[in-house]
């Protein structure tokens, strides 16, 4: 007569489940890495946009010009109140990102009414991706687009 087991799993059953989980993890790992890179990229672009809007709002609320300076070929920018020369924000971007000036000359100044002092654009390059940040005259508008 054969003995009936009512508890536990055999070693073979556990190894089969472990092998299936390992295969699923190996298949999904490249997708997770890609998703993490996309999330980081999205965070950098969103943070830059928010910081520029902050500089514009600061200029309007404090009624003082605010200068934004992008370090060319380095991943950092600085926001400075022009009357007192006080640094409001200095941000470094993680990773292998860098700014490249195209038609924009430094510094970019948000005037008391929120407008920029000059139009132009610059590039944010990194990891095979390029984003173009364009500053328009009038109303201090700017936008970020994938180049």
UniProtKB/TrEMBL annotation:
It is found in: Cell surface. The keyword Nucleotide-binding does not apply. The keyword Cell division does not apply. Its main location: other. GO terms for cellular component: cell surface. Keywords: Competence. This is Competence protein ComGD.
């Amino acid at each position: 007569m054969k003995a009936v087991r009512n508890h536990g799993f055999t070693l073979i059953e556990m190894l089969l489940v472990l092998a299936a989980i390992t295969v699923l993890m190996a298949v999904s790992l490249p997708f997770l890495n890609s998703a993490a890179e996309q999330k980081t990229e999205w965070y950098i672009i969103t943070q830059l946009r928010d910081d520029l809007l902050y500089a514009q709002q600061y200029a309007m609320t404090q009624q003082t010009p605010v200068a934004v300076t992008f370090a060319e070929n380095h991943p950092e920018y600085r926001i400075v109140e022009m009357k007192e020369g006080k640094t409001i924000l200095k941000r470094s971007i993680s990773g292998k990102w860098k700014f490249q000036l195209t038609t924009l000359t430094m510094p970019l100044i948000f005037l008391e009414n929120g407008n920029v002092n000059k139009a132009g654009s610059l590039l944010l390059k990194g990891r095979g991706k390029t984003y173009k940040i364009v500053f328009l005259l009038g109303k201090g508008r700017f936008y970020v687009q994938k180049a």
